[in-house]
Amino acid sequence: MAQTKILSAVTLLAFTSLASWAAEPEPIPRLDGSTIRPTEIDSTVTRLMRNAEVPGVGIAIFNHGKITYLKAYGFRDKEHGLPLTADSVMTGASLTKTAFAYLAMKLVNERRLDLDKPVEQYFPKPLTEYPRYSDLAGDPRYKLITARMLLSHTAGFPNFRAVNRDRKLNINFDPGSRFAYSGEGIQLLQLAIETITGRPLQDLMHEQVFQPLNMTRTSMITEERFENDYANAYDEWGRSLGHQSRKTADAAGSMQTTLRDVAEFAMAVMQGRGLRKSTRDLMLNPQIRIVSQHEFPSLAPETTDENKTIRLSYGLGLGLYLSPYGRAFFKEGHDDGFRHYMVVFDKPRDGIVIMTNSSNGEGIYKEILETLLRDTFTPIEWEGFAPYNEPAHTEISVGPEGLERLGGNYASRLGLALTVVPKNDHLDVLIGGNGHDLFPEGELRFFSKTLHVITDFEVDSQGKATGLTLHYADGDVMMNRTN
Questions:
Q1: CB 293 within 8 A of CB 302
Q2: Within-domain flag for 428
Q3: Which residue, 121, 130, 125, 188, is CA-closest to 154?
Q4: Which of 56, 73, 238, 350 could join 84 via S-S bond, C-beta 3.0 to 4.6 A?
Q5: Section 362-369 average pLDDT
Q6: 416-to-182, 432, 468, 480 alpha-carbon distances in Å
Q7: Residue numbers of the domain that contains 73
Q8: pTM higher than 0.85 for the full model?
Q9: Measuring CA to CA, which residue among 231, 235, 148 is closest to residue 188?
């Protein structure tokens, strides 16, 4: 009943929005020279929201370097019927990394940051004497890592150290030799830049990026002035996660921002505002060719030639590829309950920003890109953006040892018991004599191909499972390991 009310409200909101276009604006140009009417944009977005169960979506479209369409749909708080607006504050997730990269390039502009100087040399003491980086003491390759490597995700770090069994930071390949997306690398560069400038990141981003680029409702931390228009995050089942509170500036993902402000930022990157032309060109110059089969898991060994024709690569803070319309730069944002995407075709200066307050948001990217922009070139599969009407899970291999540590008996406080048995490349879960197969989509996250359930395991410092949580549409069931 609640879902029906929500969908009815979305329909009503769409109808009201359509009615407001008494004199409909000019059609919006697309990459291929065709146009799309605003009413068609409305109907496409609202239909996708309804089908994919996405509460709120923001769309910004660029043509010839100008914002020609900016609109928010649906709800920032569906429980209270509060609409999403172009100024509703959301967690920017990894869009933060690109804004931070812009700060780094401004320091390159000023010759305060050398892209090829080992970052360790910027610190007053050896990097390994900082508690957060003491894990690297036994691997001298940390002395080779530069800002260029950190911005192009080639330093050799995991995405985050928590994916390692011992939860320690390590270097997985010779720095500079391959691409592996890493939030850890961005956080190391944050420490270096704060050391170089003697300033906290929050102040630097405000003064050097947000204020000059007119990003008036953006901050690296939660601020009271945003309280009147925050967007709640929603999980895969439409459950509210509230809005995220960020008390510490994190270059890898803490930025609080809006559709309007991200559109302003994308415009700044197009124009190279605040950067020399040579610095802006360097930011969008390929640093490493990407041959990995998928972006995540970032250290997976599988490679492919599928993206060779588009020359998929990474610049400094942005992904890059070639299209019939020239070079495109892109960045995704992925956090609990927030999914965002930005792509700009540099020569025509056409592009789009998609922001959503739902874990289902990635499922609508493909059709939005193809319908609103005529973009059929974005490497959807490599980025893991499964359309909503296709399986939303990507099965990976975690190996026999990774499965073995999760096997055992588990029980909840209410008496529910189950047994997890490693079986070839997946787990067999036995409940009351019935077996259900779970397949890995992460080191500790498994999914069912027949049931709407996700299973997350918890492990101790030795990497052995201590418990699990079953996520159902109606709620979560937490269980402790009993043997």
A1: yes
A2: yes
A3: 188
A4: 56
A5: 96
A6: 38, 9, 12, 11
A7: 2-98+201-383
A8: no
A9: 148
